[in-house]
Every structure is written in structure tokens, then in C-alpha cells.
Amino acid sequence: TIRSASLPTAVLKSSLPISVLVMSQPTSAKLFGSSSVSVFDTVVKLAQTGEQAGVFLAEDGNGKSTDQGEKHVECALILRPDVPMQQVMGIPYVVAYGLAEALEDAVSNIGIAWPYGIVIGDTPVASIRAHAGYADGMFVVCGLTFDFEEFPEIEELLATGALSLTDLAQKAMATVGSWAENVKAGRAAAGPLAPILNEYFERVTLLGQTVDVVYPNGNVAYTAHFGGVDVWGRAIIVDGEGKETAITPEQASIRASR
Q: Phi and psi dihedrals of 184, rounded to 5?
């Protein structure tokens, strides 16, 4: 199913596993039919064919956009910021900050779970994954997966239009745009998070608390103090003797100590 009403300059790309409606305006939502293939994977393939910046949302077989209220929804962004390659790793952090800031207007107790998850209180509500590549210039695809199972009030806001996934995603894109301008102005020389570090930092949950450092295989490496986040997005973990260790998301995750 393709929704085409009121969407300008549509081009149908039928070679992909999900039918995609491509539009000329980079900040407009792009809707495509549901499939067993994830929105993220499909949009990565689009970016690899040179598709330009935009927001992509799924719709079901009845033509209902996931922007209209579901418990589990997914969208994806193609981002093409004009920044040096070494700054690209900061983009999912910037997207998380933009989402958290946008959600604060409608939902209380929003926070960022290091490195770039969105939580309400202690409960995850959104996750972000990213894929960078080069096709018609550098691109980054950020997939946003929302789970409103425990938050019927948010589902209601989406269903009534009081809250829009399109608006949230576009806010995240705008935040990346502002960040990229700061990078180009030399304000990220110390590291990619430098332009937003204070704002990101104040939204990160578990800061100052005792946390478990967990290997990717699920085993707990050790328990220590979550001391902060540096300009490269690394979590600063402090042991009982005051020794600091910087860990990346690839090395380990953190959780409240059990």
C-alpha cells in the first residue's frame, strides 16, 4: 500500500523489499508499506542508493501510519551532515538528546540511558541504532524504535495527534543540523559531543549512582560508580579507589546495580 495524497514529487522505487514513497522535501515524512523487513534495514538500503536526508515511517495494510498511535513503532532517519568523519560517531547521541528534548514538552520524567536510549523514569521507551556509510556523500541512518507498552498515555497522545512521531523525528534531525553547524564552527575540536555535552549530561540517568558494567555477552564485569560522560561519548566509571575507566558502548553497557 502506498499513501500518496498531498505528497509532492513522488518517485516509486519498486526494487526494494518494501515499497517506498520518496519525496523531494528532506524534512517531510516518507511512508511505506509494512513488511517483515525492518524500517531501519530498508532505509539503510535506500541510503546506499543515494537517497537524501529524510524521515521514514511505516504504515500498515490499511494505510494507517504508525504515526497515528501504536504500542510498538519504528521509524528511521537518513542524515547527511557536512562534518568530518571522526565526528560521525557522535550522531546517535545527538539524536537521543534531540528526542529527549522534544518529548519533554509532552511527557514528564524523560531521560537518556547511556549511551543513547530514551527512558521514562527507569523504563525504556525508545532505542536508537545507527549505520554510517558513503553513497553520494557520507550518510548516517538512525533507526528509532519506540515501545509504549507500559505508557498508554503516550499512545493516546499519538492517537489524538497531540504527539507526533514525525515531529519528534524532525526535531531530532533539526538538532543534528544545529550540532553540525557547531562542528563546522570548530566547537567540537575536543570531541563530537562537546557542543551538546552539558545538555546531554543533565539528562543522563544513573549518573552518580552505583552501576553494573555489563559485557555484550550479558556477564557483569564489575560494579562501580558512574561518574560521567566524556566528549567522545564514553562512560566514565570510577572504582572504589577513585581510578577512572572510560568505556565505549561497544565494550560494555551499564545498568543500575542489582
A: -65, -25
- Beta strand pairing status for 29-33 and 54-59? parallel
* Residue 50: partners with Cβ closer than 8 Å, 6 or more residues away: 135, 136
Residue 100: what residue type? Answer: A
CA count, 13 A, side-chain hemisphere, 91: 30
How many beta carbons lie within 10 A of that of residue 160, not counting itself? 10
β-pair partners for 65: 59
How far apart (Å, rounded) are the C-alpha atoms in residues 199 and 175? 12
pLDDT digits (tens, 9 = 90+) for 111-138: 999 999 999 999 999 999 999 999 999 9
Distance, in Å, from the CA atom of 120 to the CA atom of 209, rounded to the nearest integer, reads 17
pTM of the model: 0.86
Set of cell numbers at residue 120: 521514562
Grid coordinates belonging to 83: 562534518
Torsion of CA 102, 98, 135, 5, to 10 degrees: 0
The pLDDT tens digits for 223-253 are 999 999 999 999 999 999 999 999 999 999 9
How far from each other are the two terminal CA atoms of the chain, in whole angstroms? 47
The one-letter amino acid code at 119 reads V
